[in-house]
Structure formats: C-alpha cells, structure tokens
Design a protein that fits this description.
alpha+beta
Amino acid sequence: MTRESADGTLSHVNGCDIRPAAPEDLPALVRSLGQEEYFTVSLKRQDAGHGFLLVAWQRGVAVGDVYVWLAPAEEPELRTHLRGVALITHLEVVPRLRNLGIGTKLLRAAEDSLYAAGRKRVALGVRLDNDDAQRLYKRQGYEEWPHGEVATTAVVYHADGSREVLPEVCRIMVRRLEEDRPGRWGTS
C-alpha cells in the first residue's frame, strides 16, 4: 500500500520518493524537466483544487511527474461519458530513467490518491501512434472505452517558454480503481 510519511512523501520506489509538488519545487522541476510554463500552470491548478501534481524525486532531483485533472473535462465526449472521472493528462520520466518502473509507480501513486479520495475510476488519453504507452496502460488494467477515438489538443511547451497547441486524436482508456486489483502494492 502507498503510505504517506510525515513529510508528505507518498512512496519510496527505485530510489525515488514520490510526493505532491509544492510551489517551492518549481525551480527544481524546471531545472530537471524544463517546461516552466507547464509546471507553473499545473501548480496553480493544483492550488485551486482542479488537480494534483505528483513528482518522483531521486536525491533531490525531479526525475518524473504525473498530473491528474480533477476539473470537468474539456472534451464534450468525456464530459458526457465520464462525468466526474479524474483524468491523467500528463505522465513523464526523464529519458535516462525510463523502463525502470518509475512511470508505473507514478501512475499507481496517482491512482492510490484518487482511490483514497473515494474516486472509483480514472481515465486518460493516448495518442494513436503511442504503442508503448498503450501497452503500459493495458498491463496496468486500463481498457479502451467503447465510444471511439476523441479529437483533443496537445499543448507542447518549448524551451524558449513558448507553447504550441496541436490537434491530436486519442484512444481513451479507463481504469476501475479497486483495492485488490492485480499489480497493486507490488503483487501480481
């Protein structure tokens, strides 16, 4: 089970501590992961109660993050079919530490936080060409919803501080949050 320690750390995994981001983390997040505008906006949304940002830290360096959107979805299809369901809108791990389980642990920490808050389901969108992510989510128990693909947008944050909004088509995948689901707490 994910446990919260006195310092707010949700879990300790693969040499990483996963905990909610705080405004004072912004300089460290930007140093390791870039995307200053993205993290500034995410922290503001978190402060307003519209979502939460969890960060994986290794020896004081941010090595990954996941953002969970709690506000109503922007896409009408999601508002219709997944009313009140939280959305994972961003999951990343620094390239040199990918495929070591950090992304999976960030995903589980987000799910655990949602489950602890009484949420029953979580959803996310995956680009049609992102086969690796689709496989990861299927292994974690996510299933493609029966309502087809959804046209949405991706916001790309550039190193120069600019941002670009691009059209994107996604598969929507949904996960029922259950205490004893396979793979939870490190069991298979």
